[in-house]
Design a protein that fits this description.
This protein is mostly helical. Helix 2 crosses helix 15 and helix 13 packs across helix 15. Strand 2 and strand 3 form a beta hairpin. It has 16 helices and 12 strands. The strands form 6 sheets. A two-stranded antiparallel sheet has the order 1-10. A two-stranded antiparallel ribbon has the order 2-3. Strands 4-9 form a two-stranded parallel sheet. The longest helix is centred in the C-terminal third of the chain and has 25 residues. It is 47% helix and 8% strand. The N terminus is likely disordered.
């Protein structure tokens, strides 16, 4: 058994000779799926403290996902669940002008890769009150789309570049010196327009700059997009699981105050007694939500840069509040007591870890049900497109129907680095 403190999540470096193997395993999509399935099994047996599972409601969830998907994509030509889509908020294409401004080709792929990496890491929930007003269009945009447009306009203004003559780039020097005030002004944050987790977002950007500087092999040139150059040198095909691995290893030290194993920062990994396992990683439930979202979001820029990401189905669903909220709102995940929805929880609380694990496992069930009803294969409709079509949009739609402001059914206090 590991030397685990369930409150801090810390595992002592003396956990044993198998520590490196355990760390490597926890960074795989297989570990995410296996550990989530363990929690789901406990839920089906009625052994969890905070939730029960009603498997009969999976069909109800699938029907709502199909309805939302058909409305947005009648021919089922669904993009991957990446963050470039949010740059097209309000049916305005902000991506093509960025590609044109970067002169297309590899330079455009680098600009998009830079842009996507910063965008995803700034993506944690904005809260119900925050809005961004886009000067060029007059649109007032909130939540994920607002964060996307705000970060895009900040990128175009050179906020993330240390070279005033080359604004359309992100470099380590600018990130290391980014302070909360600068980011707040770019995102139009005021006392009347608060953004959840602003300090955490700024700190995450500074740590990103330090990590990029410290890893020139993966980030040549001191830019996030250096990863495209580094990975392309290995070949023009890249497995999705390998892309995730590179992100988890390369960016692991940016995450604040997280579980460690043998001195290694594990990132979005938390303790739950039902997660199972053996040896040093016993009870650890990996999610890697933002890292997986980043992997999905890099598919399109990498393709533009000549690197084709294959086996995308290896990655998992995303355990965030839209997908998880959909499953709670439609009755597939059922809270055991009122405090689950009444109280505000911390990210590492057992109730939140349990909710996220059940979400991950049930998203695979929902995806299977969607494919069966549409009579398509996993190759024709991979999870990455069901998420976009899909579960995320359906979660937002149902939340708006049920709650003023469209917030999730379970509230989590975010530091700007997880949700």
């Amino acid at each position: 058994m590991s030397d685990i403190d369930p409150h801090s999540g810390f595992i002592a470096p003396s956990a044993g000779a198998d520590t490196a193997t355990a760390v490597a395993y926890l960074r795989t999509p297989l570990a995410i799926r296996v550990r989530a399935a363990n929690v789901l099994e406990a839920g089906l047996l009625g052994e969890l403290r905070h939730f029960t599972v009603d498997r009969s409601r999976v069909d109800v969830v699938a029907d709502r996902v199909i309805a939302v998907t058909r409305e947005a994509y009648p021919a089922l030509r669904i993009p991957v669940h990446g963050r470039l889509g949010h740059f097209r908020a309000g049916k305005i294409d902000r991506v093509t002008p960025l590609i044109d401004a970067a002169s297309g080709g590899h330079a455009a792929a680098e600009a998009l890769s830079d842009r996507v990496l910063v965008r995803v890491l700034l993506d944690a929930g904005a809260g119900d009150a925050w809005r961004y007003r886009e000067a060029a269009t007059g649109q007032e945009i909130n939540r994920s789309e607002g964060l996307a447009v705000a970060s895009l306009r900040a990128f175009e203004a050179g906020l993330f570049s240390a070279d005033g003559l080359l604004p359309l780039r992100v470099d380590a020097a600018a990130l290391r010196n980014l302070d909360e005030g600068e980011l707040g002004r770019a995102f139009q944050v005021t006392a009347d327009n608060p953004l959840v987790g602003l300090a955490g977002r700024a700190a995450l950007m500074r740590r990103l700059g330090e990590v990029i500087d410290g890893n020139p092999a993966l980030f040549p040139g001191g830019r996030p997009s250096g990863m495209l150059q580094a990975l392309k040198a290995r070949g023009t095909q890249l497995r999705a699981a390998d892309l995730l691995h590179e992100l988890l290893v390369g960016l692991g030290e940016i995450w604040p105050g997280r579980t460690t194993l043998g001195g290694v920062n594990l990132g979005d990994v938390w303790y739950h007694g039902a997660a199972g396992g053996s040896g040093p990683s016993t009870g650890l439930m990996p999610f890697h939500k933002l890292s997986q979202w980043l992997a999905y979001s890099l598919f399109e820029p990498f393709e533009l840069g000549g690197v084709h990401v294959v086996q995308p189905g290896a990655l998992t669903g995303l355990p965030e509040y839209r997908n998880g909220g959909l499953l709670v709102d439609l009755g597939a995940i059922v809270p055991r007591y009122d405090g689950v929805t009444r109280e505000v929880h911390q990210v590492g609380d057992e109730v939140v870890v349990e909710w996220r694990a059940l979400t991950l496992a049930l998203l695979d069930w929902v995806a299977d049900a969607v494919r069966q009803k549409l009579e398509v294969s996993a190759e024709q409709l991979p999870l990455a497109r069901i998420l976009e079509g899909g579960t995320w949009a359906a979660g937002r739609q149902v939340a708006r129907e049920r709650r003023a402001g469209g917030g999730p059914p379970i509230r989590v206090e975010s530091d700007g680095t997880v949700f």
